[in-house]
Design goal:
This protein is of the alpha/beta class and about 325 residues long. It is about 45% helix and about 20% strand. Strands 7-6-8-5-9-11 form a six-stranded mixed β-sheet, with helices on both faces. Strands 2-1-3-10-4 form a five-stranded mixed β-sheet, sandwiched between helices. Strand 1, helix 2 and strand 2 form a beta-alpha-beta unit. Helix 2 runs antiparallel to helix 11, helix 7 packs across helix 13 and helix 13 packs across helix 14. The mean pLDDT is about 95. The protein binds pantoate. Pantoate binds next to strand 3.
């Protein structure tokens, strides 16, 4: 071949070949809870899977304890804007971004963990995660916050009548706020990062959260009463900013998605298996754990809220959740 032809052919060939460097990134993964909480133990497991499976090209730096925002709403805003890459946290404030997800926060909707897994990992959960695509978020998987319980500094609580008039911090979630109002309690929505101080100063009488959260934040330093009301199941989600997600090659997206699902199984089990041990730890720190709450009375007290939300979200959708077996 003549030299004059060879050089243009070489140039044309190199133009069609891709010499792009493999995708590489260190992603910011943020949460409102401490490093010892199940979200972050699960996040470390998830990060390890992704790092191993991408040969260290994709790694995560964890920012626990609300370092990047004083509550979960702020963290979600940052994910939506793309200044945080990944969020692990409750669905509490997520309804402000994607309203359909609030259906999961209705009190006394889930019977037990088996029921939770079937709904969240089935078509209902998948479609709620897919709705996040519309608001610049990629829902990777449902993780778990857990069944919420009531703590307070005033008295033993068994019935809604015992709790009447108490000022209780709730998440910034209209479903929760309405349910507490209906039960005669005075709900005070507040970012999580402000709750410990508010309890300490007596600005609020109590708060409600799953046992794992109550233990990791050392609520026992400021509240000695815990009633196992289990009034609502609080799902958690692992979410990536759409901007970051769209930058990733397809093969890496698949690795991340698969690790998020495996992380979900691992993280959910952490809280479930250790609940009794965590309760014992709380008791050791002077907390009175009230197990014999009047569940029927709580269900009845929150029923008007349940009915109102059935109408709002559509009875057929609520029934689809209730009838999932
Ligand atoms: O109560 C809340 O705000 C949430 O349950 C918490 C503690 C941030 C965990 O998701």
């Amino acid at each position: 071949m003549k030299k004059a032809m060879f050089i243009p052919m070489l140039l044309a060939l190199s133009a069609t070949m891709s010499f792009a460097a493999p995708y590489k990134a260190e992603l910011k993964l943020a949460s409102a809870t401490s490093m010892s909480h199940t979200y972050n133990v699960g996040a470390q497991y998830f990060a390890k899977l992704v790092s191993e499976r991408t040969g260290g090209r994709i790694t995560f730096k964890l920012f626990p304890d609300g370092q990047l925002g004083k509550g979960e709403r702020e963290l979600l805003e940052a994910v939506q804007q793309g200044s945080i890459d990944v969020y692990v946290g409750s669905t509490g404030p997520l309804g402000g971004f994607s309203p359909s997800i609030q259906i999961l926060d209705i009190p006394f909707l889930f019977r037990d963990y088996g029921h939770v897994d079937k709904v969240l990992d089935g078509s209902i959960g998948n479609s709620l995660l897919a709705d996040l695509d519309k608001v610049q978020m990629k829902g990777l998987a449902f993780w778990e916050n857990g069944f919420r319980n009531l703590t307070n500094s005033k008295k033993v609580i068994k019935t809604p009548a015992d709790a009447r008039g108490l000022k209780i911090r709730t998440m910034e979630n209209p479903v929760h706020i309405q349910a507490w109002k209906t039960a005669g309690v005075n709900p005070t929505p507040m970012a999580w990062g402000e709750v410990y101080g508010a309890l300490q100063q007596g600005v609020i009488d109590g708060q409600e959260n799953p046992v794992a959260v109550i233990l990791q934040v050392k609520v026992y330093e400021v509240q000695k009463q815990l009633a196992l009301t289990q009034h609502v199941y609080s799902p958690a989600v692992l979410i990536m900013s759409a901007r970051r997600w769209n930058q990733m090659p397809k093969e890496d997206q698949e690795i991340v998605l698969q690790a998020a699902k495996e992380g979900a199984v691992y993280q959910r089990n952490l809280g479930r298996q250790n609940e009794e041990q965590m309760l014992a730890e709380l008791q050791k720190n002077g907390v009175t754990v009230t197990r014999d709450v009047d569940k029927a009375a709580w269900v009845a007290a929150m029923k008007p809220a349940f009915d109102a939300f059935s109408a709002q979200f559509g009875k057929e959708k609520i029934d689809a959740i209730l009838n999932t077996k």
